[in-house]
Every structure is written in structure tokens, then in C-alpha cells.
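Batch manifest line 404
LIGAND: zinc ion
JOB: complex structure
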Amino acid sequence: MSLDLSGIDRRSVLRSGLTGVAAIGMASVGGGVLRPVRAPAYAGVVGEEGPEVVLLGTCGGPVPGRRFHTSSALVFRDAVYLVDAGDGLAHQFAQAGLRFDDLRAHFITHLHSDHMAGYYSFYLLNWVASRHRMRPVEVFGPGRADGHGPPGHGDFPAGLPEVPGLPLVNPQLPTPGVVEITGYERQAAAYDVNIRLRDGLPEGRTPPEGLTPPLVEPHEVPLARQANFRDPCPQTPPVKVYEDDLVRVTAALVYHWPVFPAFAYRFDTEHGSVVFSGDTSPVANLYGLAHRADMLVNEAVYAPQILKDPGTPLDPVTRHVLSAHTQYADQPAIQDVPAHDGVGTVARKAEVGTLVLNHLLPGDGSVPDQVWTDAIRKVGYQGDVRIGNDLMRIPLSTVLRRAR
Ligand SMILES: [Zn+2]
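JOB STATUS: finished
ARTIFACT:
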């Protein structure tokens, strides 16, 4: 199956990959002439007509590396939306020239630490400087892993794999969701918040009446009734989780077991659509959510770095990486892990205009861009491809989009 390019709006591919706050925006005017575009509130903007994706961190996996862990921003007009909260989010958000006061909503794909370690620190470090925000930022993310499905038994709490003989952290609630995590974080930060309220704010700066800083309000993404830890990704239609005057955000359950729930998010605007896969093996729910999107930001794993010897029995981590992530190329069955589409096939089948790779594993830059790109082209994907890097900016106006 090949992609029909007749339905794609081919624009001049301009300066995607711009980094840093000094980047200067340019736009194409009839026949490819470039002219500067006036930058709005954030820096380094290209294109006025549609949303722009800013990759804030692109490293996959819970190990510190040369890139920041996964988080991304979607910038549209004067609004900023965040997806995930990898370590370094506060730093990268500032490096990208984004403003906390412009942040409207934040979407968490799943609760692995490489997507969450920068979550509360982002709010803790931004509320003091926030001058105009009068409302909390609404955060949408997974609820408790034990929220649905069979109860636990014996030494095996619901929502966790049954592995005998292991210690259990926080036994009264071993699988907190985004609401409970925010509560724990707020308690842990009590001293800092209390002292700054009394001795750390500029004169005249008080938090909005009735609100306790940091200004964050968590919500669980609604879960299909039939979904649970044992059946984590039943085929279900996307659900709407957020809407304002600029974007409509829908979520789909994806497969990242034993992490549950895990979500992909789709942003629809009047000027285009962007989907963030989160961590997942290729599943029908993602194909449905991403169908004919202008841009798919998808995780990618370079399996040869993970699977050094296909003959040896799979350890739990390797099994998880092979069965619950998306590989750089189509993956044959390996031992008891079934065959999966690779990321290029996902983009081709979903018929997306542009594929952006993030959450790269390994995240140390040791896999050349050409290796990722060659694997994607080999399976017939003909849209634009961007291999993500920290602080890469990708305006929709500069890449292949689906026709309206
Ligand atoms: Zn993960």
C-alpha cells in the first residue's frame, strides 16, 4: 500500500529543526519567496497560520542521557499546550521561550518516570514567577492502575504484575494515578510553598484568592468501562478530554503494558491536526486516532541496540521494550513476542502527512538519523519525516500536511 500524495498539501519545507530562542521565523509567499514572520509571545516562531510542535525532550527510557526526557509542546497563536513532563521540562520550556502564563492545559500519556519526573517541579518552579495566571493549569492524565478490573489477592495488589517476593512501596496506595500523585507532590512541597508564600514573593504578588499554589488541577482521563490492567487496550473510540476556542483534544487508549492506562492524544485545530503517540506498540486505537492527521509525533526504538542476542531468553525489560513500544522497522516475531508494525508502517497505514520521531531509544544520539529515515522509507511511507531532537521546532506550515 502506498501513500496517495495527491491528498497532501506540499509546502515549502523551511527551517524545521530550529533550536533556541534566537531562531527567526520565515514564511513562504507565493513561489517560495521567504519573508520574516513577526514572532508572537514565544520566540523562534515560523508560520502564523497553524500550530507548531516544539520537542522539549526526546530521550526515551528512564536512564539519564545526553537529551532531556520526553515532553513536547504544541503552540498555537498565544496558547501553549504540553504533552508529558519528562525530567528537565521546566528548563526546556524556558529554553524554548515559552511562557507559563500562556499554558492552557497539560496532557500526560502515562506515568513512567521518563514522562513524569519533571511534572511537579515544573509547576513548583513556575508559579512564583507567574504574574498573570489566575487559574490553575488543567492537567489530564491516567487514573489509578487498579481503577477497574479484578481485585488483587494475597501479596499481589491489583494493577501490578504478579511477581512474588518483591517489596511494595506505599502499600496503602501502590498504584496512584495523576490525581493522587499531584496530592503527594503537593504535600512533599508544603514547606517550600509555605515559606515562599510568607517570605518569597515580590511585593503585591499574592496567589489568586482561594487557590493554593502551585497552580495545577489534575483530572483523570475517562476510561472505557471494559479497559483494565488485564485488558489494557480494548478497541474503543477516542474520547474528548479538553476543548477551548483553539483546540479540541481527544485521547485513545494505547498498549504499554504493564503500564496502564496509557494514552495517545490528538489535537485538532482549524489549521491542522497533531497526534502524540505516547509509548505504545502499534495498536488499532492509535491507527484510528491518528488517521489522516497532519502530523504524528511517535516514539521509536532502535531494536538492534536493545536486542543484542535474539537467541537468549528475553528478560522483562527487553520483553517490555519489544512488546509495548514501537520499533524503527517492522519487527518480526521474537520468541513469544508477536510481530509488530514499525513506525514507518504506522505512519503509512494511518496516512499521516508528516512523521516526527521522539522518545528515541537509545536516546544518546548514537543511531544516525539516516538509519531511522531509511527504515521508514523502506516500508513505503512517503510523507515528511523528522528525526526529533531537543528544542526542535516543527511548524505545520513547513511540512507535508493532509489536504483539508
Ligand atoms: Zn513508558
